[in-house]
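Lab notebook: predicted structure, single chain.

Context: the supervisor wants predicted structures on file for every construct in the current expression panel, including those that have not yet been purified. This is the next one on the list. No modifications to the sequence; it matches the entry in the shared construct table.
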Amino acid sequence: MARTNPVQFIQQVRAEVGKVVWPSRREVTLTTIMVLIMATVMALFFTVVDMFIRFGLEGVLTAF
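Prediction complete. Output recorded below exactly as produced.
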C-alpha cells in the first residue's frame, strides 16, 4: 500500500468530499418523517404481537 504524506491525504479527502451528493432539506425532512412513521407502526405491531403472546401464555399457564 502506498504511503501518502499528510498534505496529499488532505487533498484526497477534499476531492472525495467534493464528490458527495448531499440530500436537499426536503429529502431529509421526508426521509425523517418516513422513519418516524415506520418506527411508530413497528412499535404498535410488536405491542400487539406481545399482547397476543402474553394472553396466550397466561391462558396456557392458568390451564395447568
